[in-house]
């Protein structure tokens, strides 16, 4: 007897031309046709040897993790291995196409089979992977297929990137429930033998241009040299638009001597030369102008592939103690955002919930967020791009140092930068937080080398954004001198960071949480004289009604009026001239950590207008 749960027909999407589907899981490289595999799957706990040996015991709603209420399981116990399975069909209209199976994120190590054939393995709980499953499909078009996933996620393993996921059974201190297995969308897409496989866009505001690097996968002609497509020349066509206005076009021929080819092309825009006119084409939180980019792969006029993306003209740099956006000093007003929800944990409840979080951050007066210990769903970054919100991308931490830790962190760091490189909202990379995973930086050179290695690796892959080596303290190399200081007294913060000279002095002599801000001997490497100083964690004021139960914050008030007064005073102190920006703790309550400006269900604790006025108050 087949006990597979009844599965409703999968959404088969064909996005109309020019319409952006907000549910699309990969917004930076969109195709018209795709099929979601989110929804009911079978689930089993335990380490069976093969898919055939699994005894299916539960039904789960993907992409919600089994620890979450929304999954239909709600089991917070330790489960080092979980299995998933579901049937699916490939639309008959996809006949003759290659079929790719995508996973947004599976925590931590995934093995995937289709119809019993191994199609993919992947290690890393926060980054995407895919497999070409065409050769594993069976039967006629429209026939039922079966996908099986084994996810291994040792809850006690501190040598892997895990972020805020607790290693104890119950959440404690600042750590939260675990997220095991699939926690971002699973989906299918049809592609041709020849297709666009990657797109990297680098804006150059100084020259009003965009560097395009397009990777293509090419078929192998029978009896011919691999990569040479039969029947004519392959070309790529690029069209850059702002709304209906075409800003640039270009065509490039592909010259390939293998199964892959890469084209580099620079698109030049007409530079109006006048600041006000230029500003209409530049991206910022105040004016988030996006430019639509269409890429078409052709052979002798025949369309082989068509992808849609977007980009922006936007520059970031650090110099002279300031953070610069589009060539001008820009003060950072960030909120610390953990990216958790009560009923879905790390998984977003819906695409709409991701948009709502961006809208709420802006409504409270913030121009950015530091996504803390989480690589957020790309659809969040899509809305941050579209609505105008800066994002610091932070690698989830491990909590023990070893060669295995170094290898795992490096792998996910590479994949994270590759995934998010094109998003104009992303303006900084953060490798470590508060020495987590490298707890002996003052004493162990190998740990300092790892921080420096990830810093320099990021700079080699992306020299256009600032990188923070170790956010908060014990800096050995960084572009932004970030400090975590939860002093409760606003006047103490003002005395420490109110002027540039005071902030520089504090970075050397003040020890928040008993840690050196800059490790002794690394003052020159950190460039204390020139580095912008950002108070990247402060505040943390708890306010919760009695019915909220047990919780904590770094400080506490007993009324809405007291919360607003304390918040306004803290923000005023952090907005003094000595700093290049701040990041307030935190955006929303997160389980027992009840120091958010919003409750965990995203209800504001204070009127949004009052929060906006306090956050965006004029600097002194």
Automatic annotation (TrEMBL):
It holds the Pfam family Glyco_hydro_2_C. It comes from the Bacteria. This is Glycoside hydrolase family 2 sugar binding protein. Belongs to the glycosyl hydrolase 2 family. It comes from Truepera radiovictrix (strain DSM 17093 / CIP 108686 / LMG 22925 / RQ-24). The keyword Hydrolase applies. PANTHER family: BETA-GALACTOSIDASE, HYDROLASE. GO terms for biological process: carbohydrate metabolic process.
């Amino acid at each position: 007897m087949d006990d597979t749960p009844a599965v409703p027909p999968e959404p088969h999407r064909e996005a109309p031309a020019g319409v952006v589907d907000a549910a699309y899981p990969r917004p930076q490289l969109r195709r018209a046709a795709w099929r979601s595999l989110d929804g009911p799957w079978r689930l089993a706990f335990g380490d069976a040897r093969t898919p055939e040996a699994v005894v299916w015991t539960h039904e789960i709603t993907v992409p919600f993790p089994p620890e979450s209420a929304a999954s239909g399981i709600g089991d917070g116990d330790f489960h080092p291995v979980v299995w998933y399975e579901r049937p699916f069909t490939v639309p008959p209209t996809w006949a003759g196409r290659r079929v790719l199976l995508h996973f947004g994120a599976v925590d931590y190590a995934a093995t995937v089979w289709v119809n019993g054939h191994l199609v993919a393995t992947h290690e890393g709980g926060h980054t995407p992977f895919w497999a070409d499953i065409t050769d594993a499909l069976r039967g006629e078009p429209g026939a039922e297929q079966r996908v099986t996933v084994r996810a291994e996620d040792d809850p006690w393993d501190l040598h892997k990137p895990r972020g805020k996921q607790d290693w104890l059974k119950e959440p404690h201190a600042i750590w939260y429930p675990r997220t095991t297995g699939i926690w971002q969308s699973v989906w299918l897409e049809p592609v041709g033998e020849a297709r666009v496989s990657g797109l990297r866009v680098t804006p150059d505001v100084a020259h009003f241009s965009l560097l395009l690097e397009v990777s293509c996968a090419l078929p192998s002609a029978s009896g011919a040299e691999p990569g040479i497509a039969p029947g004519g020349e392959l070309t790529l066509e690029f069209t850059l638009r702002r709304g209906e206005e075409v800003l640039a076009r270009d065509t490039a021929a592909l010259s390939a001597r293998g199964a892959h080819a890469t084209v580099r092309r620079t698109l030049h825009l007409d530079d109006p030369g006048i600041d006000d006119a230029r500003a209409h084409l530049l991206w910022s939180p105040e004016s988030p102008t996006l430019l639509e980019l269409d890429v078409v792969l052709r052979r002798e006029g025949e369309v082989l592939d068509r992808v849609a993306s977007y980009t922006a003209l936007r520059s970031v740099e650090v110099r002279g103690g300031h953070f610069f956006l589009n060539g001008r000093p820009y003060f950072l007003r960030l909120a610390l955002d953990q990216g958790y929800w009560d009923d879905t944990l790390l998984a977003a409840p819906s695409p709409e919930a991701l948009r709502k979080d961006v809208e709420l951050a802006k409504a409270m007066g913030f121009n950015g967020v530091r996504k803390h210990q989480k690589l957020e769903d790309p659809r969040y970054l899509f809305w941050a791009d579209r609505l105008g919100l800066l994002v610091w991308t932070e690698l989830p931490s491990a909590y023990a140092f070893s060669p295995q830790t170094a290898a795992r962190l490096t792998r996910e760091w590479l994949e994270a930068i590759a995934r998010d490189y094109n998003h104009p909202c992303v303006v900084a990379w953060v490798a470590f937080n508060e020495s987590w995973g490298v707890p002996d930086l003052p004493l162990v050179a190998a740990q300092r080398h790892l921080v420096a290695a990830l810093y320099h690796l990021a700079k080699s892959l992306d020299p256009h954004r600032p990188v923070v080596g170790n956010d908060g303290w014990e800096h050995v190399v960084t572009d932004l001198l970030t400090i975590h200081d939860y002093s409760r007294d606003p006047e103490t913060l003002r005395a420490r960071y109110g002027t540039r000279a005071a902030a520089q002095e504090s970075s050397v002599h003040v020890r928040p949480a008993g840690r050196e801000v800059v490790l002794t001997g690394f003052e020159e490497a950190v460039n204390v004289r020139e580095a912008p100083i950002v108070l990247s964690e402060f505040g943390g004021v708890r306010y919760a009604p009695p019915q909220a139960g047990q919780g904590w914050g770094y400080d506490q008030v007993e009324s809405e009026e007291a919360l607003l007064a304390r918040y306004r005073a803290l923000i005023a102190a952090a907005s003094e001239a000595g700093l290049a920006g701040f990041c307030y703790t935190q955006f929303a309550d997160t389980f027992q950590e009840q120091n958010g400006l919003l409750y965990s269900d995203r209800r504001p604790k204070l009127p949004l207008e009052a929060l906006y006025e306090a956050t965006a108050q004029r600097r002194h």
